[in-house]
Amino acid sequence: MTTFEPHVEDGEPVVTYELRGPVALVTVNRPKYTNAQNSKVTYALDAAFVRAVDDDAVKVIVLAGAGKHFSGGHDIGTPGRDIDESFERKAVIWWDHTDAQGVDSRYARESEVYLGMCRRWREIPKPMIAMVQGACIAGGLMLAWSCDFVVASEDAFFSDPVVRMNIPGVEYFAHPWVMNPRAAKEFLYTGDRFSAQRAHALGMVNHVVPRAELEGTVFAMAERIAQMPRLGLALAKKAINQAEDLQGLRVGMDSVFGLHHAAHAHNAEVSTDSLAGLDARAMAASNKAAAAAPAPATGSGPATASGTATSSGLAATSGAAPASDATTASDSAASRA
Ligand code: ZN
């Protein structure tokens, strides 16, 4: 296993890299904060993916999250939140955001670390499998959706609760393409969790397996895929990606990115910040309140019924990070949008 200096937090690498035969296992490693994604994680992931692409021995990349949850989203409140730090830009050619203000800053940063990075990763010429357990919320969706497909454990759930912040979905707006438009509307309008089973029924998830079988299933698939020639896989990936783009994914994301930034700007104009004042703590409280409201049976599968959510410490229908895993500063890592 390899770590990426200086992508280290409290002595631990924020992303780990492990080679298992023809498979590179790339793992977000902030389990204490439900793998909340800060810029440090973003650039560590990017470095890991570059390494995997450069290594001829790697045929398939598996993206995972350490601990109970895949990812609680973008970092909106952990001690490692680093939105005001400057990193060498990799995804787009734009100026540094740290000495700019308002939209000038926000648009620059999110073009790079959110939309740009996810698009860059989607274009990685080797197959990528997201291995998802537990929470996959908002920014976590962006990681999973950048992969070619998703294998989830039965306890996995997905949500994008950012409409609560007036925002029409996370920056990588794949919602109507990874599920159907009506489901995407329900997903956004309610902020509800969709269970792994429901996500599977909607075509967003390829396979759902018991938690104990998740890793074995993913690696068996990866090793099977690894038997195919590298070029064939790369071209097949590009073919499907191009088909999605012809169905409007790329220009759709561009247009929604504008709406997304209109919402950020509105919030900054009329509220205390671009997130409508919903910091990690407030988001967790909102999610708890939403969880108390009755939801239709179809909105959550058996693994995410309210009883299960309570017993596992998960706060909400729309998925705050579990209190048991987080500090008070980050009791929701969900959805810095
Ligand atoms: Zn945003």
Structure description:
Helix 2 (102-122) packs parallel to helix 3 (139-146). The strands form three sheets. A seven-stranded mixed beta sheet has the order 1-4-5-6-7-9-12, sandwiched between helices. It has one domain (2-330): 2-enoyl-CoA Hydratase, Chain A, domain 1, CATH 3.90.226.10. The protein has helices spanning 39-54, 102-122, 139-146, 175-178, 181-190, 196-201, 214-225, 230-246, 249-270, 280-292, 306-311, and strands spanning 2-3, 8-9, 12-13, 15-20, 23-28, 60-65, 128-132, 135-137, 149-153, 157-159, 194-195, 207-209. The protein has 337 residues and is of the alpha/beta class. Mean pLDDT is 87; it is low at 296-337. It is built from eleven helices and twelve strands. Helices cover 40% and strands 13% of the residues. It binds zinc ion.
**Large-scale geometry:** globular
User: Please, what is the CATH homologous superfamily?
Assistant: 2-enoyl-CoA Hydratase, Chain A, domain 1
The CATH topology label is 2-enoyl-CoA Hydratase, Chain A, domain 1
> How does CATH name the architecture?
Alpha-Beta Complex
Strand content of the residues, in percent?
A: 5-15%
SS-derived structural category: alpha/beta
What kind of sheet is the major sheet? 7 strands, mixed
The CATH class label is: Alpha Beta
- Secondary-structure element sequence? EEEEEHEHEEHEEHHEHEHHHHH
